Amino acid sequence: MFDLNGIYNSMKSFYDLCWLGKSLNPKDVVVLLGGSDAFGTQLCQQLINEDVVVVNIDSLDNSNELLLDINSPKQQYYFIPCDSFEDVNHMKSAINKVAQTKLTPTIFLNNINFEFETILKDSNTECNDLSSDYVKYFQKTIMINLENVMVSTKYFLNNFINPDFYYVINVSIDIKDVYSWEGSRFRTSKMALNQYHDSLVSELNEMYWEKNLDIKNILFYLPYKHLNYSEYVSSCKQLSINAVSHLKNGERGPIQL
């Protein structure tokens, strides 16, 4: 008997090596969760510069920070408000509004990084004890960065998948010093997200066989070591340029920005 999984894995390794398949182009529509932070805003801008349509789901509209071509024949930026990433029903409601744009999404990108600033070297925002406040915020961070992202991703795939869809992307950090106390809530949530992303890859591989959909995945790692907040913000433009370059190359897998 043929080992279909073995054949698939061999073909996929070659496929990944050559960066074959779909890649970012002006026909794409990116649904972006959390596109209004420092990195998200720069990413919106770089995608728009490539003539890609961006649907930003966030609590804050960053359109006043973007350079938009008012003479463009198509609307390139849509903002859908989500009052709270802590409430999964708010997130589902916001995702449902994507249908009202009459757009066909091709990329789903999660850039929710609640408490990212707590791992930067000038951070003094996280309490260092196991008080009730710490436990409360720990639960909140896990809920926002992991649990609701998982539910929202599944909900999106179940309701908006289409033959043109080809990318699921998570933005995270590469956890090396697991035992560091600094930013422990954020680190824990992102360790779990990275593991979830691995399981998502397997699920997307199954969709290849069941629905003949070749959906790529990327886990973008943001840099954070030896950076303070202002240095990180200053680097976001180049990080977003790097991210778009990887998408234009049609790459997949874990990628350090």
Automatic annotation (TrEMBL):
InterPro entries: NAD(P)-bd_dom_sf, SDR_fam. GO terms for molecular function: oxidoreductase activity, acting on the CH-OH group of donors, NAD or NADP as acceptor. It comes from the Eukaryota. Pfam families: adh_short. Coiled coil: none annotated. This is Ketoreductase (KR) domain-containing protein. It comes from Tetrapisispora phaffii (strain ATCC 24235 / CBS 4417 / NBRC 1672 / NRRL Y-8282 / UCD 70-5). The lineage of its organism: Eukaryota, Fungi, Dikarya, Ascomycota, Saccharomycotina.
